[in-house]
């Protein structure tokens, strides 16, 4: 890509999701979690990436395409904890900063942090854990 994306479009979100998951799959902390949750085949990853593009399209473009239940999905992954969320957020934001203008990347950082906090708090409550541990 010669110039960073300045706007959120279906194309830019698809590029973001692909780039992020390419990195996450190789990450020492996140890779095993994603492999266990998504699988190892490219078909499984294609389905997962398409679902996540739908998620971000719904969040940022108000398309309403995403019909999943992220809290339920994440609650089914008992091994994820605060360190995973911190790493996910850092990697996601690094990826966004490499693909988008500063203004667009800042928006992604803001929205992703808010979503991450919400998921973490919900998981902590569901697990009967100290919700504050997810915010440190």
From TrEMBL:
Organism superkingdom: Bacteria
Molecular function terms from GO: heme binding; oxygen binding
InterPro entries for this protein: Globin-like_sf, Globin/Proto
Protein name: Hemoglobin
């Amino acid at each position: 890509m010669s110039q960073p994306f300045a706007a959120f479009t279906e194309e830019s979100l698809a590029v973001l999701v692909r780039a992020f998951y390419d990195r996450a799959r190789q990450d020492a902390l996140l890779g095993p979690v994603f492999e266990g949750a998504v699988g190892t085949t490219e078909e499984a990853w294609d389905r997962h990436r398409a679902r996540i593009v739908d998620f971000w399209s719904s969040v940022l473009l108000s398309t309403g395409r995403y019909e999943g239940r992220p809290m339920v999905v994440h609650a089914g992954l008992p091994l994820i904890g605060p360190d995973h969320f911190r790493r996910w957020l850092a990697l996601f934001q690094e990826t966004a900063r490499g693909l988008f203008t500063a203004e667009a990347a800042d928006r992604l950082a803001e929205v992703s942090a808010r979503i991450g906090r919400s998921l973490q708090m919900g998981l902590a409550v569901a697990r009967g854990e100290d919700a504050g541990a997810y915010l440190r």
